[in-house]
Amino acid sequence: MRGVVAMESWTGPVSLLVTAFSLCSVAGSQTGSHGLMYFYFQSINITELPAFFRIGMLDDLQIDYYDSTLREVEIKHQWIADGLSTDYQKEQKEITDRLHGLLSACLMPITPHIIAPEAQVLTRRPTATAGESLSCIITPFYPRAINAMWLKNGQVVSEGYKVTVLPNFNDTYWMELVIELQGNNPNIYACRVEHSSLTQELVVKGGVGVPHCAGPMLGLMTVFAIIFGVM
């Protein structure tokens, strides 16, 4: 009996692909058949793990292990080694190396490259719960690590504003910083952005964007673009 099960878990820049191959059922002398399973793991941007590793299981017992750092198939039990052919480790290494190359080639297109952010500062009208404020919207950018802040009269504002970071549909990110004006002139504020994709910091002054209602407008525009594209 043969079967293939594929499971995926994506978290943007930190991802792990798990593929399990149920290769065969092995007839046992007393308890019936036994399941032989090989689990292949391809990690993306997870420094604590090898880029690729494999675990062989006979029912609930681990029988071997391989990873892209070790580059050898390790047999976990001597009685397992005694029951396998002398070419087992060599054959399994060749199979695993080929699958590693295949998975790497398939995953390459979905790993986003470094993408530089753009920023704009807009005025937010007063609401029932908050006064007039400024919104600095930064998107798209990748990787996720970013340093953005408000400046007031050229000095860093260390607290008193709201920060939201959300993923876009294409694995890039969207960020908004909202600061309440409290009667201050918006021209004394600026939004500063530092990111690994930028050769120099990005600074956008307040008081120049048109007012808009509260909410992530650029995010909504992206959603509409997806809907219209599908239609």
Please report which band the strand proportion falls in: under 5%, 5-15%, 15-25%, 25-35%, 35-45% or over 45%: 35-45%
Tell how many strands the DSSP assignment holds: 14
Content-based structural category: alpha+beta
Query: How helix-rich are the residues, as a percent range?
Result: 10-25%
Number of helices: 3
**What gyration radius follows from the Cα positions, in whole Å?**
26 Å
How far apart the termini lie comes to 43 Å
- The main sheet orders its strands as 1-2-3-4-5-6
Order of helices and strands: EEEEEEHHEEEEEEEEH
Mean pLDDT: 74
Outline, from the CA principal axes? Answer: elongated
Taking the sheet with the most strands, its summary is: 6 strands, antiparallel
- Regions with pLDDT < 50 over 5+ consecutive residues? 1-15, 19-30, 212-231
